[in-house]
Amino acid sequence: MSEVIVVTSGKGGVGKTTVTANIGCGLAMMGHTVTLIDADTGLRNLDVVLGLENRIVYDLTDVIAGNCRLRQALIKDKRYEGLHLLPTAQTKDKSAVRPEDLISLCEELKDLFDYVIIDCPAGIEQGFKSAIGAAEKAIVVTTPEVAAIRDADRVIGLLEANDLNDPKVIVNRMRMKMVDRGDMMGIEDILDILGIELLGVIPDDEEIIIGTNRGEPIVGNDDSLSGKAFRNIVMRILGEPVPLLNLEPNQGLFLKLKKIIGFK
Amino acid sequence: MATQHLLETAKDQPAVLIERTLRSGQIVHYEGNLVILGDVNPGAEVTATGDVVVMGVLRGTVHAGASGDESATVIAFRLQPTQLRIAGYIARSPDGETSRPNQPEIASVRDGIVTIEDFPIGGERSGKN
Predict the structure, then answer these.
(1) CB distance A195–B59 less than 8 Å?
(2) Of A139, A155, B33, B105, which is least packed with CB atoms within 10 Å of its CB?
(3) pTM above threshold 0.90
(4) Could you tell me if B27 lies within 8 Å of chain A, comparing CB atoms?
C-alpha cells in the first residue's frame, strides 16, 4: 500500500523542507522505499538539505517535458538505501508544473515506492495547488507563532476544500522554557485553534540547523532530542502509537523529584 | 394556543445551520439567522442579516444585522472575536490582555453601544427583554 503525502504550511520558513527530509530519511532507515519530490520549482532546497545538490542532472520539469525518463531524474540518496530524491528546476517557475502533471507522475511513483512525499512550496498559489493535487494525505508544519498558526489554519481549510481530510500537524521549533514562562503558545493552545490531530512536536534545536547546513538530516543522530522527535514522528506515520516526547532535556533528578512531591 | 403565541413573537427569518468549524480565509454570508456548530477561527468572516449563534469559540470577525437590524445579537459559547459588528456599530476586542470569561456571552446594541453580557442558561433568563 503506497501513500502520497504532502508536507505543507502556508507560511514560509517554518521547516517544511527539513521535516520532509527527516521523515524521508527516517522511513528509509526503517527499511521502506521512499521518494521525496521537491515541488518548490525555482526555489529548490530539498537537494541541499539532503546533501545531493551536486548529483542533479535531470529534474522534475525535464520529466514533465519529456526530456528524460523518470528513472533518470531520480537521485539515490548517499546514506540511506531505498531513499530517492526527485529534484525540481531552479531556473524555471511554478508554471512548469501543472497539477495533472504531478498527479500522473505520482501514480507512476506509487508503483515503485512505499512512500512518496511532496515538499510543498510556501504560499497558496499555483505551486501549492499542484503539490496538494497529487497527495492522498497531508502534514501541516507550523511553529508556535500566531502568524504561522493563522496560515496553517488557512491551509487546513484549503486542504479540506480539496478533499484532503484529516491532515495532521507537526509543531516545529518548540521552546518549552518560553512556554513555561508564558511567553510562547503551548501545544494545547495550538491544537485548540487548529482542531486537528498532532503528529509530533520538534524542539528548537541548534543541531537541526547544523545538520541542515551540512546536508545531514538530524533523524540519523541518535544522541539528539530532535532526532528522537523525528524518529517518533516516523513511527506514528507507520501507525505505531508512540507517546509524546518530554521536551525538557536538562531536568535533573532533583528537579524531577521536586515536581513529583509537588514543589514548583 | 400557547405555541401560536410563541411563534408570533419569534423572529420571522430563515435560519441555517453550519456543521463545521470555519477557518481563516473562509467566508459565510446568509440572509437570515446563522447557527454555527463549530468554532469561527481568526481570519474567518461571518455575516448575517439576522442573529449569529456560534456553538463553539468565536475568534474571527462577525457581523450580525448586516442590513441594518440593530436588534440583532451575537451569541457564542466563548465570545472572543477579532471584531464584532451589529448593524452599523463596530466593536473590537480591547488591546492587550483581557479577561476571558469561561462561559457563553451575548452581544447586543444598547443605547448606541455594543454591549457584551453573560448569557445565563435556564430560568434566569426567561422574562427578560
Answers:
(1) no
(2) B105
(3) no
(4) no
Residues from chain A that touch B42, judged by Cβ atoms under 8 A, are 150, 153, 193
In this complex, the residue of A150, A192, A195 whose CB is nearest that of residue B43 is A150
- The sign of the CA dihedral A209, A212, A218, A219 is positive
Residue bearing cell 512518496: A116
Residue with cell 507517546: A243
Q: Burial letters for A68-78: b for 16+ Cβ neighbours within 10 Å, e otherwise?
A: eebeebbbebe
Whether B26 has its CB under 8 Å from any CB of chain A: the answer is yes
pLDDT digits (tens, 9 = 90+) for A211-256: 999 999 999 999 999 999 999 999 999 999 999 888 775 656 666 6
Closest chain B C-alpha to A228 CA, distance in angstroms = 32
Transcribe A49-117 into DSSP letters: HHT-GGG-SS-HHHHHHTSS-HHHH-EE-SSSTTEEEE---SSS-GGGS-HHHHHHHHHHHHHH-SEEE
Contacts of A156 in chain B (CB under 8 A): 23
Is A196's pLDDT higher than 90? yes
Q: Helix A206-214 vs helix A16-29: angle between axes, to the nearest 10 degrees?
A: 80
Beta bridge partners of B84: B62, B91
Domain spanning B13-121, CATH architecture: 3 Solenoid (2.160)
* Residue pair B44/B62 in contact by the 8 Å Cβ criterion: no
Complex-level ipTM: 0.72
Best residue of B27, B41, B102 to probe chain A, by most A CBs closer than 10 Å:
B41
**Domain A3-261 grouped into CATH 3.40.50.300:** yes
Asked if B42 lies within 8 A of A151 by C-beta distance, the reply is no
Our measurement of the distance from residue A210's CA atom to the centroid of its chain's CA atoms, rounded to an integer in Å, reads 17
